[in-house]
Amino acid sequence: MTQPLDSGVAITGMGAVSAFGEGAERLWQGLREGQSGIRPLRHARADKMRIRVAAQVPESFDPAQHCSERTLPLLDRCSQLALAAANEAVAQSGLDFSAGDLALRTGVIIGTGIGGETTHDEQSRLIYEEHTGRVHPFTIVRLMVNAPASQVSIAHGLHGPTFAVASACASANHALAQAAAMIRAGLVDVVVSGGTEACLGFGSLKAWEAMRVVADDTCRPFSKGRRGLVLGEGAAIFVLESKAHARARGAAILGELAGVGMSADAGDIAAPDPAGSARAMAQALVDAGLTTEDVDYINAHGTGTQANDVAETEAIHRVFGPHAAKLVVSSTKSMHGHALGASGALELVAVLGAMRDGVVPPTMNYVAADPDCDLDYAPNAPRPMHVRAALSNSFAFGGLNAVLAIRAPS
Amino acid sequence: MTENLSPDEVASQVIAIVAKQAKVDVAAIKPESTLKDFGIASLDAIEMIFDIEAHFDITIPDQGANFDTDTVQSLVDAVNKALAAKVAGPDAAA
User: Fold this and answer.
1) pLDDT band for position A2 (50/70/90)?
2) Long-range contacts from A61-66, C-beta under 8 angstroms, 24+ separation
3) Are strands A297-299 and A328-330 parallel, antiparallel or unpaired?
4) How far apart are CA A296 and CA A81, in angstroms?
5) Catalytic residue, candidates A67, A78, A120, A169
6) What region does A220 belong to: left with phi over 0, alpha with psi -120 to 50, or beta?
7) Which residues of A337-353 are buried (b: 16+ CB within 10 A; e: fewer)?
8) Whole-angstrom Cα distance, residue A202 to residue A207?
9) Is there a catalytic annotation at residue A323?
10) What CA–CA distance (Å, rounded) separates A335 from A229?
């Protein structure tokens, strides 16, 4: 392995809410065992939709467990999920934000593709369908796209740079990349960062239906017979801090966000371009000081659409050359679904779990090989293997690519 | 009333919609042509399917494949099938 640059960022806490329920550990155990979070769609208007399945946060999720009684009415579902995940991450990090000026040196950067869609959908229904003539006075503060970041900053008293990052399905990775860049630039010592999404309202489900990219059976990334993506929801939030800061306080380091790569296809608004995603992967390797041979695992964007899986496979070949045949590529979206602006964060939980336990999570629901997808996707069974370094890919509609390079803790 | 169209009328109306989207003359479109032949790809193809659904008041099911690699004839077949399902009633269409 090449000499690591010392500009990486330590990950010292993580939390998640997903189709597997509450907790990063529960998410990871589900993925590690190849369990499915995909279920029949739970929705009051399910009979009016072609979408049949989704990876939804279980009904047992109780937002009141994660915030004060006074805060709860102010929260869209996407902020509820973000708060639960952030509380878990902050607790694991062991940081005390009341000490010294740490709260002033800690930012919050949270990605979300859509923001408060549940609020928007419900309040629109009231005025358009029930003709109430008025909506709830908290509608704006619930639905604004920065609400999850603001609510996390309020809950933990964090006064550093705080804002949302939006790049559709790459929002979480762009947010984490922005957080790492600010730490490396010395603007802050700590950032609470990740992604959240809860946009399974009637209107947005109809919009996904109209785009004809959603599978009616299940998510089968890279497999012959795949029929599209399966929508999910959830949040995953991390505590990132400078390595010097983490070392000085003797923090346990879960992994290192060693580098990032970002690019825009500047082509089609929806169809992926392997040249753009390849550029982002190559940049992430250079930024992290990794060679292609250092990488053992790629957590793929792997949506299960016809177009993505072929383009991503082609991009991996372009970047890794002969080493592409040696590394393992898997799509955990086959289990936690495509949680859009949260997906990169849920997938970072998978990468850190793989590094800790020496097990790569599988690509589930794989039926047979597609000649255009010819890599080792760990089909249907977890793969015991040592992971020294990994990439985590997110490629968004709009042609926006964000790739994280992660190193196992030394 | 699109339910009572003859197969030839359905085909000519589908071809007219394809021609409009592709900005080519209807005479240039053959049953074996693919949408890709006319540069209709990705979102354009999905928008065209949307226009066809609105024109005939039907729902064309997802195919789990790229519409842009399908032929015009397969599109006409899909419309005929959806029209037949509509005549048979909502239960049959589901």
Assistant:
1) very low
2) A61/A17, A61/A21, A61/A22
3) parallel
4) 31
5) A169
6) beta
7) bbbbbbbbbbbbbbbbb
8) 9
9) no
10) 11
Catalytic site includes residue A373: no
CB contact under 8 A, B64 and A215: yes
CA-to-CA dists, residue A250 to A59, A94, A144, A306, angstroms: 38, 10, 37, 46
Cα–Cα dist B86/B75, whole Å: 17
- Can you read off the two tokens belonging to residue A317? 């070949």
Q: Pick the catalytic residue: A120, A156, A174, A301?
A: A301
Phi, psi of A324 (to 5 degrees): -60, -35
Mean pLDDT calculated for residue range B74-88: 88
Are the beta carbons of A212 and B49 separated by less than 8 Å?
Answer: yes
Distances (CA, A) of A334 to A22, A187, A211, A232, A355: 19, 38, 20, 10, 20
Residue to substitute from A212, A265, A306, A310, interface B, most B β-carbons within 10 A: A212
Of the candidates A215, A223, A227, A231, the residue with the CA atom closest to the CA atom of residue A377: A223
* Residue A316 burial (10 A CB sphere; 0-12, 13-18, 19+): buried
Of A284, A336, A329, whose CA–CA distance to A309 is shortest? A329
Contacts of A212 in chain B (CB under 8 A): 46, 49, 62, 67
What CA–CA distances, in Å, run from A85 to A24, A40, A61, A75, A140? 8, 25, 12, 14, 23
> What is the pLDDT at residue A137?
96
Q: Which residue of A has its CA nearest to B66?
A: A306
Structure tokens at A381: 């069974």
Point out which residues pair with A242 in neighbouring strands. A9
pTM: 0.94
pLDDT of residue A74 exceeding 90: yes
Q: Which residues of chain A are within 8 Å of residue B65 when distances are taken between CB atoms? A: 306
Report yes or no: A222 and A2 within 8 Å, Cβ to Cβ: no
Q: Measure the CA–CA gap between A272 and A395, rounded to whole angstroms.
A: 8
Q: What are A107's strand-pairing partners?
A: A191
Identify the band that residue A7 occupies on the pLDDT scale cut at 50, 70 and 90. confident
Query: Which runs of consecutive H residues, i.e. helices, occur in B1-94?
Result: 7-22, 42-56, 72-88, 90-93
Element (H, E) at A190: strand A190-197
Does the pLDDT at position B93 exceed 50? no
